[in-house]
Fold this protein.
Amino acid sequence: MGGEQDTTAASQPFLSYSRADRAAAAELHQLLEQAGVAVYRDVENLRSGDRWLSRLQQALSHCSAFVVLVGQEGLQRWVAGEVETALNRHLSAPLGTPRLPIHPLLLPGASVADLGPFLGLFQALSWEPGQPLPASLAAELRQGEQAQPAERVVFEGCPYLGLASFDAKDARLFFGRRSETLRAVASLGDQSDRDPTKAAAGGASWKRWLQVEGHSGSGKSSLVKAGLLPMVSHGALWPRTRCERWRILGPMKPGTNPVGELARVLEQGLAAVGQRLDTFRREEDLKRGPTALARAIQDALAHSAIPADSVDPVDSADPVDLANPTDPADPASTTACLLVIDQFEELFTLADTTSRNAFDALLAAALQDPACPLYVVSTVRSDFLDRMVQLPQLSVLLNTLCQRLLLPTITPQGLREAIEGPAALAGLDVSEVSTLMIDQAQGEAGALPLVEHALTQLWHQRDVRGGLPSNKLSGRRLQEAGGLAGMLSGSADTLLDQLEREWPKHGRAGALELLLLLTRINTDDRLRHSRRRVSREQAVQRAGQGDPARGEKILRRLEGQPPPGQPDNAAALGALRLVTSDSEGGTAYVELIHETLVRARPAVQPGGEVQAYWPTLYRHIEANRDRDMVEQQLALRVERWQGAKAGLRWWQLAGWGQLWDYRQLSVAPKSTAARFLRYSRRAAALQALLVAASLFVVVQGLWWITVNKLPPRYFYLRLVWQFTPPPIPKTVTIPAGSFTMGCKPGRDVDADGDCEREAMLQQHPVAISNSFELGQYELTFAEYDRYVWAVGGGAGTAVSYPNDQGMADREGLPVFNVSWRDAQGYLAWLSRETGQQWRLPTEAEWEYAARGGRDARYPWGNESPAAQANCSDCADSPRRPVPGGNYPKTGFHDDLADMAGNLFEWVDDKGDPNASDEKASRVLRGGSWDYDARGLRAAFRVDYAPGDRGFNVGFRVCRVSPIEKPAAGALTTGPLKP
């Protein structure tokens, strides 16, 4: 119970006991004094006053030993505080000075399990009141000695965990961090030394949140799970919190849905026995508002049954009455909840902003609610501390309700305890390896897992003598393996070799790909890569590389399953485990068993190679160090794709370059990322088809314009022709009427001129009985070329593209170098395409239209051509064909152009009406750019062979009136002119 503040307490054993064991304590005190041991036993004094812990520490600061009496109720209330103080003195003894001896004494009904994780490491003796005092106890107290656990074997099997982290079940094997564990215990609740029964919850000294910080691999999770939580279960928090009963919520990892994970641990931790768990309902409740978590905890504790024997018996010496655990004035006095959040940094790496803010609000509201008995323990990597500002409410509480505990690299003394403590429990001799390992681990960030792995391997490799394995771990084997790092890389490489033998070309590659997937590559520090969790489905897919069955087998081997043909007992055979599994929200996950596998030490020499703990995997990571970044980019693109509106999602899909980067990534088949990639590949395939088609069109088009000697613009025109109907030549209506056709002296020649010598017909009257449509301009190259393309003409075919003589503006020029037969072919095609009747004008129609109702020499009258037309001796002649419409319009219609000059135009008539069709020449009218003004006369005519072509010869179309109704399905371009 403590010691009084007088000189008699110095250098005397301190006797600690609970009120229930007061009679046994009095009898023990009397027996020890009879044996010549003066023992200090406090009766009441330490229970009164406000500075209880200070007075307790003073009483224990000079005692020679600590004897704790443990009854069937275990460690209760005041005793837990005294034990914590004694353990702190024992563990904080400077090197080279004696540690405080601690002697647990078990009363009837008590067992070693009642001692808790730390006290259970000391040699416990059993004693029953009325029986003689254990002889060894009196002797040890007189001599100031302490029985050590090494005197007996209490653990069967390998006492080391290899690369695995410690859990609550491994508490008795958790050495090397005991002083840090006690500091963690002391970090929750009242940080002053007040009487726990009088201290009110709240105030600046009251901490409800412990955050354990440290670099990746420092052992934060192990400290909480194997150190702190077992202490909490044995009442270690009562001296500072007044809470003797705790409901542990978790441990949980925030993951992608921290509110959902919080709902899961709440449902598991707060549900009554036999109650059906409903995590979905719980998650929906938490989404109702920031106070939902506090209400859920209060409601659960208010309706829970608390066993009567859960509280220490109370006597008249207790300052306050705590017999009623549901005292309405202080409902949290004996029961509280401890929420454990492991890998707190997942709030920043996995959760989105909305989920993170909701979790932040729930936790902050519960921690600040004085009626909510919630305490929180979180572990976070120190390199993520700068991101705490992303939690707008919890970041404020860091300086008020939070106690922060930095977990440094384990000390040499801690390493010695981690090596020798479990060895003592298992009766092992580690004298050959202990100092050697400590020397090799100096300055190693991953020292503890390296040591644990080496010890595990050495335990499995013990020499066999007389049919039994030796109890001595071999220093020679450690050195032959290359020390701590060599044992890790050697055993890991051996596992890869086994996988390659089982699955040639796939086993090793699949394992390395999976291990790479489980690595979060640190782009800023090549030495400090970290691990990450992925779904088991993803892991199997990556390991199998297309074969799920093989992937599952490779994954199981990496989880420690022995090779085929060996017993399924990995622990007994020492099978190496590189990955570990867990479950979250119904989904199975895997992750690296420890980050030492993917880390390295700095180079010995500046500029030299880093020293990887496992060079094989490290080299694979370095060769694929951009893979992690690509996966993060994929996650970001998936998020944007999901958030885009339905009609705009197409634009958020991955392009060819991104798909190439994503080709080696592993995604779950039914995940959102898989759907994103599937749609992206479909879109890319469609784009590829379009590109291929476009390339085909481009190549074919370039070939086409090259072979046919067409200008580059025709590449574009050809694409337009693919989707547009044939152009219809513009026409003007020529009305019916009569005129004198041919050469009329005084009109077409001088009065004394010779018509025959001037190449003219003799005059004769002609009646045009029906109106007709005549082309406004001479037919252009573009219009004629469209016809050649449509009928599949070109170089080497019967219908070819006319030679433009190298003129740059081919498209708009009137077509030349076309024969009469060429013109007939075009007109027949145009008639088919439009369902209308197109032909060349007759010689009479042409001259009638050219005269335009005037009885004159030229279409514009009898005056000189001057600038009225394009001819060889006309003013400002360009000496080449020009596009239609460059000269004044003349004739029946203001829009009828170029009837004189520019190009000779084919008409339908024979040169000799009596000649056969095969031999007959065909008439040309109108003159041309290379002909003098004489050829511009309306009556002038020449005749060529129907197959002849010339640089000065083209034609004009004629559409017959009345227009026949187009055939069904024929192409039309709109109403015709009347």
Notes: Residues 438 and 870 are 107 Å apart (CA to CA). The chain has five domains: 1-147, 177-303+331-409, 412-484, 485-625, 713-960.
